[in-house]
Amino acid sequence: MNLATGPADRFDGRTAFGQNRLFITGGTGFFGKSMLDYRLRHPGWRWAKAEWVILSRSPGRFAASCPCLANQPGVSFTAGDVRDFAFPEGRFDAIIHAATSAVTTLPDAEMTSVIMDGARHVADFAKAAGCGTVLFTSSGAVYGPRTAPAGEDDACEPATAYGKGKLAAERLLVDAGFDVKIARCFAFAGPHLNRGIHFAIGNFIQNCLDGKPIIINGDGTPLRSYLYADDLVEWLFAILERGGSGRPYNVGSGRAVSIRELAETVRNVLGADVPVEVKGVPVPGAPPSVYVPDVTRAENELGLRVATGLEDAIRFSV
């Protein structure tokens, strides 16, 4: 990806936002770090000229671990939990609500509370702050298990507390009566991805860096796709600015790869001399599970494209 280009080069300037103040929840997770990183590297981007206020449960710990991202001019932090944080003073032009636990082993009740109580609190804050526009980072999990790529008009049949919560939060925010932009996010790669939890691409990269075998406990057939972090940021801000109110947009890559193919691609791109071991055996005739978005709506309505291919996404994530 040519880092000299980005939203500043593609956006045409038509926006209802004064772009003075932006509030971000989840601003120190993968999405937040990716946005802060993009801001740092694109000082001419007009959102980089706005004041960003970031909600974090531990601003001090984040500043110690990521000083370059945290100590940018125009970026400040407020401490709190998304469910009950104290409202920062003043008006905000936009809110990006991206706070959700990345740990899928969180008990269902706690996961539901983080998503739903967090959405309610953000809605209350938006009203108090005079902010009419909220971008909500929902998830492809709202569609439920699938054997084909998911489109926004497909039925939503979530099977997990996470997916059910995200779908309910979409509806809660839309019903709150202000302009809500919905980004249904799938899977991603980037330098700030936590490589120690359940994200396959991060696990495979770390195994290669450590010189350890890549172990696939399943049969390697599930299909996934991965969008690079810079593309993610560009897509999110395009949806914030130009997306239809209450209209969901899938965010991700349409290029499907099997888990086994992904492992082999990571190994080849990084030049690692490690084996790929697949423990499971495919069931004859069984279709693979698919967690891949149909991104036609984002392409046709917002003019978005995937600028970074999978191989470069892997390379840039190290």
> CATH class of the domain at 19-192 and 227-253 and 295-307, please?
Alpha Beta
Figure out the total of helices: 11
Structural class category: alpha/beta
| Helix proportion range | 25-40%
Roughly what fraction of the amino acids lie in strands? 15-25%
**CATH T-level topology of the domain at 19-192 and 227-253 and 295-307:** Rossmann fold
The name of the CATH superfamily of the domain at 19-192 and 227-253 and 295-307 reads NAD(P)-binding Rossmann-like Domain
H-E order: HEHEHHEEHEHEEHEEEHEEHEEHH
Mean pLDDT: 93
The end-to-end distance, rounded to whole angstroms, is 15 Å
Rg on CA atoms, Å = 19 Å
Strand order of the largest sheet: 3-2-1-4-5-6-11
Number of strands: 14
Largest sheet: 7 strands, parallel
**What general form does the structure show?**
globular
User: What is the subunit organization of this protein?
Assistant: single chain
Shape-level CATH architecture of the domain at 19-192 and 227-253 and 295-307? 3-Layer(aba) Sandwich
What are the low-pLDDT stretches, counting only 5+ consecutive residues below 50? 1-16
Note down, in words, how this protein is organized.
The protein is an alpha/beta fold. The chain has a domain at 19-192 and 227-253 and 295-307: Rossmann fold, CATH 3.40.50. It has helices spanning 7-10, 30-41, 59-65, 67-70, 108-128, 161-175, 200-210, 229-242, 259-270, 296-302, 310-316, and strands at residues 21-25, 51-56, 75-79, 94-97, 133-139, 179-185, 188-189, 214-216, 223-224, 227-228, 248-251, 257-258, 276-278, 290-291. It is globular, with a radius of gyration of 19 Å.
